[in-house]
Structure formats: structure tokens, C-alpha cells
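Fill-in record for Phytochrome-like protein cph2.
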Amino acid sequence: HARRDGGNVVRYFEPTMLAVIDSRRELEKDLRRALVRDEFQLLYQPVLQIETGRIIAVEALIRWRHPKLGRVSPADFIPVAEEAGLIGAIGQWALHRACLDAASWSEPLRVAVNVSPLQLKSRDFVGVVQSALQESGLSPSRLELEITESVLLSNGDLALAMLQEVRSQGVTIALDDFGTGYSSINYLRRFPFDKIKIDRSFVSGAQANPEGQALVKMIAALGVSLDVSTTAEGVETIEELNAVRDAGCTQIQGYYLSKPLEVDALLELIGDPSLAQAHDQSRRADHV
Ligand code: C2E
Ligand code: MG
Ligand code: MG
Ligand code: MG
């Protein structure tokens, strides 16, 4: 988008709409190839049970290592994947990878995988979950699916039926980013879930903000009365940890505890000696 007007003058123009569409199409093209080129990676962020002080679960968070752009955030490429019809394949990859990884750890941590609402529009979904469990040998009770409230609104019946089916096999369901959607409390009655994840926007600075603290308290109380656990997302400081604990949350996740980690660093953190070793060996084997 630069033009040389003689001499050394380079003029830059505002990107046109066409340019925006162009780069989007470019990204889509690259995304289409990313799976076969093995450019995706899962990082794992630990979740701590406040009462016991133990790490009981990890959330799988996808990363795309683009050959030219470097790390692309899921916030940037997931929406493109959804529009391009690629989220089914990417979601399937993530489920398989997460189940295979978790099945290889000696600590029986639960692994939570984010699921796009679009994945719950396809009837294949139950089969995809089942094949990830079967191929990995992971116990269904160690798999959690994170869905957002928008699923409750947009694709009601099929999504509900599929979630009920996987849940009847022992998979648990977490409501992600709770409080940011528009769902009415009434939807919650219809919906099978085991955990509420309180969005970071309510957790940030909760200790200094009476409204935020009141909301966290209310959601934690809702969790108690519905008999589901409540995870505070995005806990970055000890003050926030104290605030969400006092509000009654049962679990925390956030930079205060740990950033999302590569598998090796996770295994080191949870002290999984057998696996750290197995990884060492496979790494050594790579370099022979
Ligand atoms: P999410 O599921 O709500 O994940 C939590 C996000 O908060 C993650 O961002 C995580 O890295 C970030 N986070 C965790 N603790 C802290 C903290 O203390 N402070 C701050 N500032 N951030 C924190 P990430 O990894 O960039 O993922 C963004 C979103 O992308 C996720 O939000 C999820 O909606 C989506 N996503 C990630 N992986 C997948 C995937 O495999 N499939 C689908 N469909 N969506 C995914
Ligand atoms: Mg999530
Ligand atoms: Mg979330
Ligand atoms: Mg989020």
C-alpha cells in the first residue's frame, strides 16, 4: 500500500476495505493449511482448588504458530476459523490432542477444552468427543467441555441433547465467561452443567470494587445453590485471590497461579517425575 512518487518519498494510504478483506482471505488460506502443517499447539493453564491448595485441572488453550506472523492469538483466529468453516476440524484436533496429552500424565488431572458454539451445531460432535476419548483411553470423567452462554441461546435443542449425551457418559460441562452473555437465569434450569467460570472482567480488581465483589459473591452463591463449582478466571494478584475466596468461589485460575504452560513446564509444576523423564527421553531420541 505504498507508492513511490519519484525520489525517495514513500506515501502510505489508509488501508482500504479491499485490503482488509484481502488479508482476511490470506489468513483463512493460511489457517486452512495450519492443521496439515502442524502449526497448532495447546498450552495448559492450571486450575487450583482453593480449599485443598491443589491443582485439580488444566485448561487447554490453543496457539497458532504462524510461519511469518509468529504467535497468533486465538481471539484473532478462532473467529476467522468459525467464519471459514474450519472450526470443526480445529476443534476436533484440540479435543484429540488434549485427551492424548492428559492420558499420558501420571497425575489424573481433568483437562478442560474450549468448544465453539458452532461445533455444537453439527451432529458429529458427540462422535468427535467419543473418538477422542477412545483413541486416547482417557476416562470421560477427566474431560471437561467449556461452552459459553451463547450456546444456550442460539442452538438450543440439538446442543442440549448432545451435551446431555456426553455428560451421561461422565464428561463434565463448564459454563465459560459466565456473566458476559445475555442468558436469563431460566436457561440455567434447562441446561446440564457442572461448573461456572466467572469471567475475568468481574474478578479484576474485585477487592477494590464493591460491585465486582458483589457480583462474584452472587455467582458463587448461585453455584452453591445449584451444587456446581465456581472458578474465578484471571486471578492475577493475592488481593484478587483473597477477594474471590471470601466471596465463596471454589477454584481459581489466573496468572497469580500460573500462565498457560507448555506440557514440559506443566509437568514440572505439578511434579510429574515419570513424565518429565519420558519427555526427556523422547527429546533425547529426537536429537540422536
Ligand atoms: P477463555 O476460554 O475464557 O480462556 C481464558 C483466557 O484468559 C485465555 O486467553 C488465558 O490465557 C487468559 N488468562 C488466564 N489467566 C489470565 C490472567 O490472570 N490475566 C489475563 N489477562 N488473562 C488470563 P487465550 O489463551 O488468549 O484464549 C482466549 C480465548 O480463546 C479463550 O478464552 C477461548 O474463548 C478461546 N480459545 C482458546 N483455545 C481455544 C480452543 O481450543 N477452541 C476454541 N473454540 N476456543 C479457544
Ligand atoms: Mg475457557
Ligand atoms: Mg473464560
Ligand atoms: Mg474468555
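KEY FINDING: Residues 45, 61-62, 73-75, 78, 91, 94, 114, 116, 146, 176-177, 200, 233-236, 253-255, 260 surround C2E (ligand 1) (CB under 6 Å).
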